[in-house]
Amino acid sequence: MTQYVYAFSEGSKEQKELLGGKGANLAEMTKLGLPVPPGFTITTEACRSYLAAGTEPGELRVQLTMALRRLEDDLGRRLGDRHDPLLVSVRSGAMHSMPGMMETVLNVGLNDASVKGLAEESGDERFAWDSYRRLLQMFGKTVLEIDGEVFSNALDEAKSAQGVATDVELNVDSLKGLVSTFKAVILEHSGDEFPQHPREQLDMAIRAVFDSWNTERARLYRRRERIPQDLGTAVNICTMVFGNLGETSGTGVAFTRDPASGHSGVYGDYLVNAQGEDVVAGIRNTLSLADLKDLDPSSYKQLLQVMRRLETHYRDLCDIEFTIERSKLWMLQTRVGKRTAAAAFRIATQLVDENLITMDEALQRVDGAQLAQLMFPRFDAAAEKTRLGKGMAASPGAATGQIVFSSKAAEKAAAEGQAVILVRKETNPDDLGGMIASQGVLTSRGGKTSHAAVVARGMGKTCVCGFAELDVNSAAGTATVNGEVLREGDMISIDGSTGEVFAGEVPVVSSPVATYLESGLDEALKDTDPDTGELVRSVDRLLTHADSIRRLRVRTNADNAEDAARARHLGAQGIGLCRTEHMFLGDRRVLIERLILASGSEERQAVYDELLPLQRQDFVELLTAMNDLPVTIRLLDPPLHEFLPDRTELSVKVALDRAAGNPDPDEERLLAAVDKLHESNPMLGLRGVRLGLVLPGLFALQVRAISEAAAGLKAQGGNPQVEIMVPLVGSVMELFLIRDEADQILATVAQEQGVELDIPIGTMIELPRAALTAARVAEAAQFFSFGTNDLTQTTWGFSRDDVEGGFFATYLDRGVFMVSPFESLDVDGVGRLIRIAATDGRKRRPDLKLGVCGEHGGDPDSIHFFHQVGIDYVSCSPFRVPIARLEAGRAAVL
Amino acid sequence: MTQYVYAFSEGSKEQKELLGGKGANLAEMTKLGLPVPPGFTITTEACRSYLAAGTEPGELRVQLTMALRRLEDDLGRRLGDRHDPLLVSVRSGAMHSMPGMMETVLNVGLNDASVKGLAEESGDERFAWDSYRRLLQMFGKTVLEIDGEVFSNALDEAKSAQGVATDVELNVDSLKGLVSTFKAVILEHSGDEFPQHPREQLDMAIRAVFDSWNTERARLYRRRERIPQDLGTAVNICTMVFGNLGETSGTGVAFTRDPASGHSGVYGDYLVNAQGEDVVAGIRNTLSLADLKDLDPSSYKQLLQVMRRLETHYRDLCDIEFTIERSKLWMLQTRVGKRTAAAAFRIATQLVDENLITMDEALQRVDGAQLAQLMFPRFDAAAEKTRLGKGMAASPGAATGQIVFSSKAAEKAAAEGQAVILVRKETNPDDLGGMIASQGVLTSRGGKTSHAAVVARGMGKTCVCGFAELDVNSAAGTATVNGEVLREGDMISIDGSTGEVFAGEVPVVSSPVATYLESGLDEALKDTDPDTGELVRSVDRLLTHADSIRRLRVRTNADNAEDAARARHLGAQGIGLCRTEHMFLGDRRVLIERLILASGSEERQAVYDELLPLQRQDFVELLTAMNDLPVTIRLLDPPLHEFLPDRTELSVKVALDRAAGNPDPDEERLLAAVDKLHESNPMLGLRGVRLGLVLPGLFALQVRAISEAAAGLKAQGGNPQVEIMVPLVGSVMELFLIRDEADQILATVAQEQGVELDIPIGTMIELPRAALTAARVAEAAQFFSFGTNDLTQTTWGFSRDDVEGGFFATYLDRGVFMVSPFESLDVDGVGRLIRIAATDGRKRRPDLKLGVCGEHGGDPDSIHFFHQVGIDYVSCSPFRVPIARLEAGRAAVL
Question: What range(s) does the PEP-utilising enzyme mobile domain occupy (chains A, B) (predicted)?
Answer without folding.
Answer: 419-499
